[in-house]
Structures are given as C-alpha cells and as structure tokens.
Amino acid sequence: MYHETRAADGADPGGAVILGHGVSKLFGGTVVALEGATFTVKPRQFISLVGPSGCGKSTLLRMIAGLIEPSSGSLHVHGDPVGKPRRDVGMMFQRPTLMAWRTVLENVLLPTELVRKVTAADRDHALELIELVGLKDFAYAFPSQLSGGMQQRASLARLLQTGADVLLLDEPFGALDEFTRERLNLELLRIVAQFGRTTLFVTHNIQEAIFLADEVFVMTPRPGRIAGIVEVPFERPRDISLMQTVPFNEMVAEVRGIFDRDNK
Amino acid sequence: MSDESIPGLSAEDGLTWRRVFNHLAILVAFLTVWEMLTVTGIADELLYPRPTLIIYSFYSLFIDQGIVWRHLWITMATVLSGFVVGTILGISLAVVAGLSETARRYMKPYIIVLEATPRIAIGPLMLAWLGFGFEAKLAIVTLVCFFAPFINTLTGFLSADEDQIELMRSLGASKWQILTKAMVPDAMPLIMAGIRLAMASALGGALVAEFISSNEGMGVLLNNLAAVLQMSAAFAALLTLTVLGFFLYRIMESLESWIIFWHHDDSMRRVARKRQTYWSKL
Ligand SMILES: Nc1ncnc2c1ncn2[C@@H]1O[C@H](COP(=O)(O)OP(=O)(O)OP(=O)(O)O)[C@@H](O)[C@H]1O
Ligand SMILES: [Mg+2]
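Above: the input record for the complex with magnesium ion. Below: its predicted structure, written as tokens.
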C-alpha cells in the first residue's frame, strides 16, 4: 500500500529535496526489488548509489522520477508524494536514447518541444548547453555521426534543457571506455556545481561513487535495500589525484566492508 | 581525384568510361550473335525474334498501332491502387494491433492462417466473388500488398525502444506524443522496408491477376501476343514491363532515402543543411 502521509514520517520536509521512508517495491507481488529504503537528499547534494546488479538502484530512481509507484512506504519530492513524472525531475540512462532522425540541437530541444512551441530563446539556450557539454561544432550533426561519448554528452545537454533541479543519472557513462568515462565524470561535476542541481548518480564502481559524491548510498541485493549511507567529506573541487590518497582508500575499504558484512 | 589530371577527365572518369564501354561492347556482341543466329536460321525466328525486329515491334506497339498504352495504363492503375489500398490497410491494422494487446491477441490466429496461405491462390476465389474486371484485380493486388507492411509495422512497434519510451515518459510526454514522436519514426525503417516489399510484389500480383481474370492490361496483352506467336511484340511488351518495374523500384528507392534520410549519408547531409537553415532563421 502506498501512504500519502507527508507529516507522519516525522522527518522535516522543509530542508529535503527527496524524502524516502520505508520505500519498498515489489514486482509481480513476489520479486522484492527494493525494501524499506529510508533516506534524505538535501538541496544541491550529490548522491552516489553504488551496489551490485539487481539491488534496486534503477528501481529507486524510476520511483523518484515518477515512472513507477512505490508498493509501500512514502516517497516525497519537493514535499509532494511521487505519482507521475514531473518537470523538475529529469532522468538520464546508460544508453543515449537519442532520436536518430533529429539533429543534436533538435534532440536537446525535445523536452521543450513536448510542452510548448520552441522559440528562438529556447534555441539559444539549447545551443549554450550544447557548447557547455563540448559539442559546439556538432549542433547540426545527427547522432549516428557521433561517438558514444559524444552521444552521452548530447543526452546530458538534453537533461539540462529540461530545467529540472533534480538530476537522476542511471549509470550515464557505464557503457563508455575508462578514459572517456573519467573525463565525462569530471565535466559532470563541473556542470552540476555550476548549476547547483541535486544529483543522484548510479554506478557499479566504488571509487567513482566516492569521488563524485557528498554521500554514498551503499545498496545490497536480495532483497534490494540501502545497507549503509557513507558521508564523503573531501573538499571540492576535487582532482583525480584524490583517488591515490590514503583517506580516499580508507573510505573505499569502508564501503567494501558494508558489502562484506552483508555477504555473511 | 588528383590535381595533375586533365581537366574534365580525371583518372576516375577514365575508368568509368572504360567500364561503360566494356559493358556496351558485350551487349552489342550479344545482340549481334543473336541476330546472326536467327538470320542464318540456326535459331527458329518464329520463337526467338531478331533484336531488330523487337525494336521495330516497340515502334509498332507504342507509336504505329499504339495498342500498348491502354493496357499499360490499366496495369499501372491496378498496381498503384492495389498498392496504396493494401499498404494503408496493412499499416493501419498494424497500428491498431500495436497499440492494443487485446486486438493483437484476437487478430493473431487469422494473421497466421492468412500468412501461410499463398496469396495468389486466393485469386480464383476473388474472381468468383468479384467477377472479371478491375475489382477482382484490385482485390488480388491489395491482398498481395497487405502483408509485408502489416507485419513490418507491427514488428516495428513491438520492438520499440523501451528506454526511448521511458525517456519520453520521464519528460511528461503524452501517449500521442510518444506514438508520433518516438514509436512511429523509430519503426519507420521497418515500415518502409515493408512498403518496398509490397511494391515489389504488386506488379507481379497484377500480372498474375490479369493472366487469370481479365480482358485488358499488360498481362492480357502478353498472353494474347504469345498465344498467336507474335513473339517480337511479346518481347517488346516484356521489356516494357522490365522498364516499368525498374522505375517503380527506383521510385521506392528515392522515397526511402527521402523518408529514412538518417540511414543515407547523402540525404542526412542534405537534411542537416536544411535544418541548420531553419533553426538559424527562427
Ligand atoms: N519491471 C520489472 N518487472 C519485474 N522485475 C523487475 C522489474 N524491474 C526490475 N525488476 C527486478 O527488480 C530487481 C532490481 O532491479 P533494478 O533494475 O532496480 O536493479 P539495478 O540495481 O538497477 O541493477 P543493474 O545494476 O543491473 O542496473 C531485479 O531483481 C530485477 O530483476
Ligand atoms: Mg539499473
């Protein structure tokens, strides 16, 4: 059952962008994709969700995006119970999901086009975003003319075009090679910091999760749940060399420890 | 192309001309041998008419007697109307089936039965129901043209990109927007392939329909000419159909590269330029 009790959780919705209390999701009545997730996401926080396949990361994101409803528990975005997709929450997937028959510019303009007639100002805004993600010379290219990394850059621009202040990124660079992924991660940090958006970022990689985040939600499968929440205190802006430091690796060990504890 | 080449005749041009020349030489040699074989009586001229005679028959069919026009027109009308009706029917039924699980379930057994039945074999029945004439031919061509677009459109919808649809939903798109902006264009390459298959079988379907059921059309002309052993005219009629088939094929080809421009580099560049102009002027 899905409770619409906002005050009953006892948490203060004022300071939180996303508020989950005992959020569970069952598929087909038997598969427990997520069980009892309780968490808070504060404005402008960067949250990494890390965990093995099948621990409910995508399920949690899709519930926050309003694509599917929780089976029980309460889940609020900006104080409203989730129900259907909303303008201020945007999502990006592992696959670029660009439309092959639209130029980069037209793909980026899609979110606008779905709600109103596109104006010259919209176009200029989209072109700025395209430049921001490093595709300045490719605004009129078609997706098939772009590399995988460039396609994800275009999807990122499209996500920003929505104007959403909550960004849900489901393994956005997971299909790219190591080098491209590292570069895009850094650019993502720069962009998110510049815009001051709240971000939930799904990954399989512990180092990546810690490097990017203010807080890491460590998730474990069968049933999927949040097994621990680790705060990441490192200063921003962060440099890739942070990954070589002792405190960083101690934190990696701490996250590993949560998985190991769960395995016993 | 190199800079040193003679103006207007680069190395590549030279190669193309050489190829064209070779092809022409082989063709001329072939026709000459054929001509000689019939002139010398080695081949029976009654059954294998001389190339020069065939060329003369073109003149007589198209200009002197001019009997081919009416038949050609009838066949083309049959092909085009049957193609249009069959294709539209196939695509719209597929859209209904693609959108409704229930429709799909109830349609499925009939589709399987119809698919397993050779379409042309339904011809004589159509003849019995609709009589000699245009309606029966139209029905046969329609039937021949129905399946490929239907199956391909349905396949296109059922194999729609789930992530794409999820993305559209997350952007708050309506059902109609998801259909028109994502699913239909996404399925378009498959739909177009179905349409091309339909066109490819339409001419054949029309001719068979004319063989069995009609008193006019190219199929009838061909039948009649061959029956009275007017072979040079029959060859001319056959070659006319070859040319017709070729044009229909080319038309479908350009239609495809126009609609599915993102599968063709040239068309893609053209559209990119057009879009750039459009957005710059906005
Ligand atoms: N639509 C669905 N119907 C049935 N079961 C589902 C559905 N979606 C997800 N599941 C199940 O729920 C569980 C969690 O899935 P989810 O996709 O959230 O995992 P994940 O953490 O995102 O995994 P991955 O890292 O592989 O993406 C899995 O066991 C999955 O099989
Ligand atoms: Mg997932």
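Notes for the reader.
The helical segments of chain A are 57-64, 104-113, 120-132, 148-161, 178-195, 206-212, 246-263.
The pocket of adenosine-5'-triphosphate (ligand 1) is lined by residues A 27-28, 31, 33, 53-59, 224 (CB under 6 Å).
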